[in-house]
Amino acid sequence: MKGSKRLMVMMLLMIMLLSIVMYRYGYLEIQRNISSIKDAQEIKTKIIEKYITLISEIPNLEKELASLKEIRGFYNTEMIEGETYSIASASLQDMVKGIITGMGGKVSSERMGQILDLGKFKVINVNIDGAMPDVKTLSDALYAIETHTPSLFVREIDVSIRDYREPRELGVKVGVSALTSGK
């Protein structure tokens, strides 16, 4: 009988130890896994909700993009176009030369100036030497340059009288700048 009591106590101890081990490494581990799965599920639900709100904002973002493209198109008309900076500078030279000769002036020389880097945009410069018949024509030419589209800027001007005996014709040196986004 003593042996069977010992066996019973040992069996009970074994069952209790087995229960503790199962509880510790089975039930608690499963609870941790379930908890981490629920946490992951909550995180994924929040991410999906954020995606849904972003997707719902797409029409508004498209409208805003269209308006920004419109505004950018307006500003692109204010810049000299050209595949390279040299082509843009040549285009600027032609514009200024056309304005001066269109007002009755004469162009004796034209040359490109330095290109100034403003990051995405560049400032191109041209220098034109010529003659204007009178002050009124010079004033009209300068006004035409300043109000031209794309925007041109007179950055320097040097005016002198060609002939002091007959001070009608003026010698003019003009430096004109413009913005470009050439490559």
Overview of this protein structure:
The chain is an alpha+beta fold and 183 residues long. It folds into two domains: 55 residues; 96 residues, Ribosomal protein S6/Translation elongation factor EF1B (Alpha-Beta Plaits, 2-Layer Sandwich), CATH 3.30.70.60. Strands 1, 2, 3, 4 and 5 form a five-stranded antiparallel sheet that branches. A hairpin with an 8-residue loop joins strand 4 and strand 5. The model has no long low-confidence stretch (mean pLDDT 87).
Radius of gyration: 41 Å
Give helix % range: 55-70%
The CATH homologous superfamily of the largest domain is termed Ribosomal protein S6/Translation elongation factor EF1B
Instruction: Indicate the overall shape.
Output: rod-shaped
Largest sheet: 5 strands, antiparallel
Please outline what is shown here.
The protein has 183 residues and is an alpha+beta fold. Helices cover 57% and strands 23% of the residues. Strands 1, 2, 3, 4 and 5 form a 5-stranded antiparallel beta sheet that branches.
